Amino acid sequence: MEVINALGRRKAAVARVYVKEGTGKIVINSKEFEAYFPSSILQYVVKQPLNKLGVAEQYDVKINLQGGGFKGQSEAARLGIARALVKINPECKSALRSEGFMTRDPREVERKKPGRPKARKRFQFSKR
After folding, report:
1. CA 100: distance to chain centroid?
2. Beta strands at 13-21 and 31-32: parallel, antiparallel or unpaired
3. Which helix (H) or strand (E) holds 33?
4. Percentage of the chain exceeding pLDDT 70
């Protein structure tokens, strides 16, 4: 089987995901999956689409991650894996959509405004 690729984004993180048939090995930025995401919660987030469809042991996943923090990177990887699985088998799209794995979270950091300390925070108002 050829390699299926997909893109996942979240906040400032971008995940390029490559999925092919294999034994369930996940490699992120040329590191082992458990070494890149030591937190079991983040490992669970990345594996959610694979576990939902029950195909965690059928595909090898290679991910290139750039930008963002570890939470955004894990969710970008989740979206990329879900999109790649839908390219492989379009019938599984409804199952992944019902869990919310196919939706790109559009929330981004709001820019800082001039004359203010942060995006929405204002300096203390003094009447006198």
Report:
1. 12
2. unpaired
3. helix 33-36
4. 99
Q: What is the DSSP letter of 104?
A: -
Residue 55's nearest CA partner among 9, 19, 5 is: 19
At residue 94's C-alpha, the angle toward residues 44 and 34, to 5°, is 15
Instruction: Give tens-digit pLDDT for 61-92.
Output: 999 999 999 999 999 999 999 999 999 999 99
Whether the CB-CB separation of 35 and 82 falls below 8 Å is answered with: no
What is the Cα–Cα distance from 48 to 91, expressed in whole angstroms?
17
Query: pLDDT at residue 39 above 90?
Result: yes
**Domain regions of the chain by residue span:** 4-99
The C-alpha angle 69, 48, 20, rounded to 5 degrees, equals: 95
Query: What is residue 37's predicted lDDT score, i.e. its pLDDT?
Result: 93
* Assigned CATH for 4-99: 3.30.230.10
According to DSSP H, which parts of 38-124 are helical? 40-53, 70-88, 93-99
